């Protein structure tokens, strides 16, 4: 077990670790030009400006992705680029001075970031989801959230919810315990699959109290708090730069005002939970689609350039390869239409759309995985060589399963919903 020094993980140090109208009424005596059409609302302008910077950011991420994957090092420079483009705070609500990016905006961003570096995209996703949740229900206390936004103006301020525990079941009480004393709460426990662990400015830790009748809530913890250790357990096939390590909490002190939503089990806000899950479903599916689009782009270049010794034209001229590429394209069109079509409906509050994001995520991720696998099969040995990025795309899309709901749970829920629907007249 290793401990990351607090000053190395402070927001300021992390951010610097690597390079970084009014019109008037015209006189009736003079003809005037037509009044200009009103421009977009200020917050949409901010969203559009951030989206305009996506291509440059994607190129920067792609340039360093292989290095961070090989060495399993955290992509601080990539996160800095995402932050500087205004993408890391895209979903901050206008009432807090943010652009108010929607789920539709979010999936657009994450699809593109996934083309550059899947690890950066996943880390970005969880921070965007935190800001989006605050925009919907303002769970953070005002002072605490203002502090986070202040940090976000200085540099990247990453946030994630630490929920998963080693051996934990989705329906079980958290093993992480919060003990009350005169000065607040003391947290003790271990969380796993904590994406971005070593670079988080804030951790939203789910825990149960040690009261006779335990309550469950979320405790906001500063990333450099005393008693936090990062156990570097993340050694996965793919997403190697995401630093999804274990976080060990040993008597970590949390002020009373940073203990959020304490309630007895079974009193959850199910509507909000479903909406939060819908955002996560589509956000992470978008990352997988982005990875598959990067794989397809590499395959297209390969087929246009590769001319085997027994041929006089590139492989792309052969109908068999064109049809196989067409199959990949059809799979990805279907996945994109599904995810990018559902997102605006969720933004409009369509309950049917919210209920469908789980199966949509499953189908989109399956399609992305199948597309990359087929690309590898078409290219043979070059597709498996570490000299080329295709094998990394395959590893990343396979490892994305770690952050997704279990297929059995998604399918069981879909089956139950179908049975219930069939029982109604």
UniProtKB/TrEMBL annotation:
Start-end of Pro residues biased regions: 31-41
Feature: compositional bias, Polar residues: 1-14
Annotated Acyl-CoA dehydrogenase/oxidase N-terminal domain residues: 61-126
Region named Disordered: 1-45
Residue span(s) of domain Acyl-CoA dehydrogenase C-terminal: 283-406
Pfam name, any one: Acyl-CoA_dh_N
The Acyl-CoA oxidase/dehydrogenase middle domain, residue ranges: 165-252
Membrane spanning stretches: none
Coiled coil segments of this chain: none
Signal peptide: none
Domain of life: Bacteria
Keywords in alphabetical order: Flavoprotein, Oxidoreductase
PANTHER family named in the record: ISOBUTYRYL-COA DEHYDROGENASE (PTHR43831), ISOBUTYRYL-COA DEHYDROGENASE, MITOCHONDRIAL (PTHR43831:SF1)
Protein's UniProt name: Acyl-CoA/acyl-ACP dehydrogenase
Organism: Kitasatospora cathayae
């Amino acid at each position: 077990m290793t401990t990351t020094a607090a000053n190395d993980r402070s927001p300021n140090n992390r951010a610097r670790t690597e390079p970084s109208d009014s019109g008037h009424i015209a006189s009736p005596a003079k003809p005037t030009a037509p009044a200009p059409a009103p421009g977009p609302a200020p917050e949409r302008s901010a969203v559009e400006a951030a989206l305009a910077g996506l291509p440059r950011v994607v190129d920067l991420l792609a340039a360093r992705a292989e290095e961070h994957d090989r060495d399993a090092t955290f992509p601080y420079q990539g996160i800095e680029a995402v932050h500087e483009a205004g993408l890391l705070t895209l979903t901050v609500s206008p009432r807090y001075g943010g652009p108010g990016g929607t789920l539709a905006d979010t999936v657009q961003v994450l699809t593109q970031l996934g083309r550059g570096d899947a690890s950066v995209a996943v880390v970005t996703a969880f921070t965007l989801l935190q800001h989006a949740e605050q925009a919907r229900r303002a769970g953070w206390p005002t002072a605490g959230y203002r502090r986070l936004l202040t940090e976000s103006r200085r540099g990247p301020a990453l946030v994630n919810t630490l929920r998963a525990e080693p051996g934990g079941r989705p329906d079980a009480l958290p093993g992480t315990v919060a003990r009350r004393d005169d000065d607040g709460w003391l947290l003790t426990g271990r969380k796993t699959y904590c994406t971005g662990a070593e670079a988080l400015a804030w951790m939203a830790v789910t825990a149960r109290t040690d009261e006779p009748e335990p309550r469950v809530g979320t405790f906001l913890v500063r990333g450099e708090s005393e008693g936090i250790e990062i156990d570097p357990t993340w050694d996965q096939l793919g997403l190697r730069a995401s630093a999804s390590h274990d976080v060990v909490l040993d008597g970590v002190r949390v002020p009373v005002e940073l203990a959020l939503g304490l309630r007895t089990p079974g009193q959850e806000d199910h509507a909000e939970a479903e909406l939060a899950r819908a955002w996560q479903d589509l956000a992470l599916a978008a990352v997988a689609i982005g990875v598959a689009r990067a794989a397809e782009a590499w395959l297209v270049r390969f087929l246009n350039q590769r001319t085997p010794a027994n041929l006089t034209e590139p492989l792309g001229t052969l109908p068999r390869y064109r049809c196989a590429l067409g199959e990949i394209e059809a799979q990805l069109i279907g996945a994109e239409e599904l995810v990018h079509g559902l997102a605006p409906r969720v933004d409009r509050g369509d309950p049917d759309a919210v209920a469908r994001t789980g199966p949509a995520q499953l189908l989109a991720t399956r399609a992305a995985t199948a597309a990359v696998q087929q690309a590898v099969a078409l290219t043979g040995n070059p597709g498996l060589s570490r000299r080329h990025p295709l094998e990394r795309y395959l590893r990343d899309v396979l490892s994305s399963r770690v952050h997704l709901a279990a297929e059995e749970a998604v399918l069981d829920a879909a089956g139950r919903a179908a049975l219930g629907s069939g029982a109604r007249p």
